[in-house]
Design brief:
CATH superfamily of one domain in chain A: Ferrous iron transport protein A (FeoA)
Strand order of the largest sheet of chain A: 3-8-4-5-6-7
CATH architecture of one domain in chain A: Roll
Radius of gyration of chain A: 19 Å
Shape of chain A: globular
Distance between the termini of chain A: 25 Å
Order of helices and strands of chain A: HHHEEHHHEEHEEEHE
Oligomer: homodimer
CATH class of one domain in chain A: Mainly Beta
DNA sequence: ACCTATTTTTAGACTTATCTAAATATATTT
DNA sequence: AAATATATTTAGATAAGTCTAAAAATAGGT
């Protein structure tokens, strides 16, 4: 069907679209793929001819319905294999990514389905990322409060519940902004505070804060 | 390490070497790989530069120690994955080959070892082919009497126990010769006779016959 | 609106693995 | 041993995916 390289581009576009909630620029994609912008342009043209992406010169790129579906299937396989490696083969959650990068390209619908069944249709991979089902649906709620996340879960900051200027200024001061990745490193049971990772910095926040930040997971 | 294509060539050379107990010709390899002789020559040169094969122009090719080791590791992965698919994921033994052709190229020693352990260190794949261990040893006896094979097992005819001219003429008449593939299709418990497949022909032979033919498996 | 900086695309080249067609080496037959 | 047939290699071409360097388009600042 599609080459490894094509699938990797689709996956990267998928992640960037969701991260920035917008079309994806050539440069952003080049950075994500660790390659040169010129290579990205070449590949985008190819994907465009195959109707996997919508592309207008200089206007960035976004996934077509087919491209979206294809990307989700690759992500599904990646996360199922990660789950398999950790749950069945005694891998640690930090060792599985590179192997899953290889396994995600194996072509066999039956294999994916049987693996899913064998694993008991898991809803999240070892990193807390949701695993889409065979139809591509992420059954796990997509947008939730930061306070609802558990340890080691992560998401992208997509909104605020409290939009008072006091709260917003607090966010500015602490460099919390929409579009940023947030990961829960620790969670204190007794007061609901948590240690989060945001842009490579660790930050401890109270439950009042985490209760007012919307996080989009996956 | 090595590309999918390189690994596939090594595997093919391995099988042909054992089948004909000799160096492998360019044409034989082209047929096995379903490609053109000129493509084979190109690849052989590349493998030779990487010291995976011993090659002299017009003299055919054979695996170096490194090439042999590499081929066996690919075969090991192929057969472990086949076992996994049948034993854990409810595949039928006739559905697994193409998927294992993909999975055999996944690079991770730890994965291979953990998979082996998870499966209980199986000795044979679903087709009866022996699975080499991590050191590349085929623990299963290599040469055995045809009568010792079970249903669905197969091997290459490599010798006779009874070398009387009567027996040899019988073999000639029935087109059984050294180097030919033999597969056991059925085995009758009550008289030890078996139905075998040899060069796309089915043949029923008595236990007296199967007891005097050496088969090399794997 | 213009100039500059940044982003994106194009042009041409390289690598891997393949092909066809032609040339060369080896094997077989008479 | 020469002629013929077969096997193998070489030469040149193609497609996928990448690169560098140069050109073109867009965006930003005044």
């Amino acid at each position: 069907m599609f080459s490894f390289s094509e699938e990797n581009y689709l996956k990267a576009i998928f992640h960037l679209e969701r991260k920035y909630q917008a079309g994806v620029s050539t440069n952003a994609l080049a950075e994500e793929m660790d390659t040169k912008a010129s290579s990205v342009t070449d590949m985008i043209k190819k994907l465009s001819e195959k109707e996997l992406v919508i592309y207008k010169k200089y206007q960035g790129v976004k996934l077509s319905e087919l491209g979206d579906k294809t990307a989700i299937q690759v992500i599904r396989k990646h996360r199922l294999w990660e789950y398999f490696l950790v749950e069945k083969l005694n891998f640690n959650w930090d060792e599985v990514h590179d192997i899953a990068e290889q396994l995600e390209h194996i072509k066999s619908e039956k294999l994916t389905h049987e693996l899913d069944k064998f694993l008991g249709f898991p809803k999240r991979d070892p990193h807390g990322d949701p695993i889409p089902d065979a139809e591509g649906n992420f059954s796990v709620a997509n947008k939730m409060l930061l306070s609802e996340l558990g340890k080691a879960e992560k998401g992208i900051c997509v909104g605020v519940k409290d939009s008072s200027s006091e709260f917003l200024r607090f966010l500015d001061k602490n460099n919390i902004a929409l579009g940023k990745d947030i990961k829960v490193l620790e969670k204190e049971a007794f007061d609901g505070s948590m240690l989060i990772l945001i842009e490579e910095r660790e930050l401890r926040i109270s439950q009042l804060i985490s209760n007012n930040l919307y996080i989009k997971i996956q």
